[in-house]
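Lecture 7 notes: from sequence to structure.

We start with a single chain of 81 residues. Read the sequence below before looking at the structure.
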Amino acid sequence: MRYLVRYDADDSKWLVIDSLSAGQTVGCHDQKPRALTQAKSEERLWHRFGAVDRVFHAACQMALGRRRMADPLADPSAEFT
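Now the structure, written as tokens:
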């Protein structure tokens, strides 16, 4: 998943983190269920953009040196290794 939920013990908050954007926090909640709801909603929105966003995601990963670009349109569920 692109969006992760993590607990911040220092602030006693649940954070929604965008793993594509270098761990950027996109949400902060007092309760875990609310953080999970936001993460699922963000994930659904991300998948609605389709192949264009997957190509962008793969290009960002390649630019960060994390992955080698394959054919991102061949199989949208495939990993880019």
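The longest strand covers residues 3-8. Keep this in mind for problem set 3.
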